[in-house]
TrEMBL record:
It comes from Punica granatum (Pomegranate). Residues 1-25 form the signal peptide. This is Dirigent protein. PANTHER family: NUCLEOPORIN-RELATED. Belongs to the plant dirigent protein family. It comes from the Eukaryota. The lineage of its organism: Eukaryota, Viridiplantae, Streptophyta, Embryophyta, Tracheophyta. GO terms for biological process: phenylpropanoid biosynthetic process.
């Protein structure tokens, strides 16, 4: 019995020592959220509009690459666009601007209008000035209501997770104008 207790004590000491070595290495260590000044996790709802100008003298959606077969695809498969949309509080172009939505859109489906979107919502006004929310996901462009995941953020939105509901508020393809409504639900510290 005494031998078993000695072996158990030795095993426990080795186990906890190795756990401490794993927890802190030359390049990584485990921290508590409080050590970074992180307090209560909050849920914030953001509501705004993105204004896209696809044509005209100052477009904010520009095709930067495409495959040789893209022009033959009914769904623009293989095209890559970059985006720099103003973020506005209302649907009218004269609404107050609170940031920019900067994105890369890759038309990634051969069967429907679906784009792989990587978006940074960069806020420039109010308490979110200098903060970003990052969205990455599949956007079914002509579906009435789309949902995309929030995968990160910076500033006020550090450690952000959540989701976005977006819909097309207004579209005039002849004039090259699209207004998108965004509802962003984001957890952050």
């Amino acid at each position: 019995m005494a031998m078993s207790l000695a072996k158990l004590s030795l095993f426990a000491m080795l186990f906890f020592s190795s756990t401490l070595l794993i927890a802190k290495s030359d390049y990584a260590e485990i921290l508590l959220p409080e050590e970074l000044g992180l307090k209560t996790r909050k849920l914030t709802h953001l509501h705004f509009y993105l204004h896209e100008n696809i044509t005209g003298p100052f477009p904010n959606v520009i095709r930067v690459a495409q495959a040789e077969t893209t022009d033959k695809s009914p769904f623009s498969f293989g095209a890559v666009n970059v985006v720099d949309d103003p973020i506005l509080v209302g649907p009218d172009r004269s609404s107050k601007q609170i940031g920019r939505a900067q994105a890369v859109m890759a038309f990634a489906s051969q069967n429907d209008f679906a784009v792989l979107m990587a978006i940074n919502l960069a806020f420039t006004e109010g308490k979110y000035n200098g903060s970003t929310v990052t969205i990455l996901g599949r956007n079914m462009v002509f579906t009435e209501l789309r949902e995309l995941p929030v995968v990160g953020g910076s500033g006020v939105f550090r450690f952000a997770t959540g989701y976005v509901k977006t819909s097309t508020h207004f579209m005039d393809l002849k004039a090259g104008i699209v207004v998108l409504e965004y509802d962003v639900y984001v957890f952050h510290f």
